[in-house]
Amino acid sequence: MGEEYEDEELEEIKRRKLAEMRKRLEEEKARRAQIEAALRQILTPEARERLSNLRLVRPELAQALEEQLINLARSGRVKIPITDDFLKRLLSEIYEQTHRDTRIEIRRK
Question: How far apart are CA 63 and CA 46, in angstroms?
Fold first, then answer.
């Protein structure tokens, strides 16, 4: 009887965890759909394609950039639609700010 009770309890825990994971997944899908809808409104197709390519290579940078672009558009600080050229300049500026030149210097005595 004790083992049967433990099995039922374990199954209940599994069901709750699964339901929680499904709920989180649905929330993430809904959030992603909202972001995509906003990006469709503020980016040209070429700029959206560039952002999609960036998302494949550097997902954390793409996510931060998406949020920043949406905030800039909502506050009216950028001209809409955001073009591919503007996005390239923005990415270039980000690269310049974050890129560090690594030099290895060998000194011989």
Answer: 18
Whole-number Å distance between alpha carbons of 23 and 33:
15
Q: What is the DSSP string of 40-106?
A: HHHB-HHHHHHHHHHHHH-HHHHHHHHHHHHHHHHHT-S-SSBPHHHHHHHHHHHHHHH--------
- The domain of 51 spans 2-98
Residue 43: how many other CB atoms lie within 10 Å: 24
CB 39, CB 66: distance < 8 Å = yes
SS3 state at 3: helix
Query: How many domains does the chain fold into?
Result: 1
Residue 59's pLDDT is 94
pTM: 0.70
CATH number assigned to the domain comprising residue 48: 1.10.8.140
Using one digit for the tens of pLDDT, what is the confidence trace for 26-55? 999 999 999 999 999 999 999 999 999 999
